[in-house]
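Late entry, D-xylitol-5-phosphate complex.
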Amino acid sequence: MPLIAPSLLSADFLNLGRDCKMVDESEADYFHLDIMDGRFVPNISYGMSIIKQMRKTTKKFFDVHLMILEPEKYAEEFKKAGADGLTVHLEACVHLHRNLQQIHALGMRTGVAINPHTPVELLKDILHDIDLVCLMSVNPGFGGQSFIPHSLQKIKELKSLITSQNANTLIEVDGGVNVDNAASIVAAGADVLVAGNAVFSSPDPAATISRLKRL
Ligand code: DX5
Ligand code: ZN
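Prediction complete; structure with ligand written out below:
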């Protein structure tokens, strides 16, 4: 059964308390929180102050996905705000190993996200320092995009890389996941499904979370 991580990017920000409560009371495993800086990605989302407020309302795991340059400048702030896991982009980190050491030293779970064009082989020499790989199945920056079909192949390749190294790394798939394609994504080897639009645009978001978990 996959872990489900609803992306709050698609929540109703004027009813954020209501949407957080829904996720908290649902079968979701993580809150997936997308942070964008308008530099690494062509969009700006929200920051630590929102996470801090949300932290008071739930004990569930905060899976923070940083789509920002120079993530090392903010890692400590995100920890203080309540992040449990911090995912940085391979493409944004010149010294990825150092970034991951920092995240572990702050007591958080490490995550590395890779863009659709980035080969999974680039993770070969760093896999044992990564608790979760966030495999982007859309170009980061926006919710509601379509799943890039080639991602399925990448999930399989990543799964065999993890198995061959006997690593404990989780595979998270982020972008365009919905009730129609989730089963094939899990069959390919995904452990965690991020879903924004599919959850928050559905008539019954909590029921959609349960469906994704059971597909
Ligand atoms: C995109 C974000 C995703 C996004 C997913 O840059 O990383 O987490 O919110 O949204 P959907 O599920 O709508 O593609
Ligand atoms: Zn994300």
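Helices lie at 16-25, 48-55, 75-81, 96-105, 151-165, 182-188, 197-200, 205-214. Will revisit in the morning.
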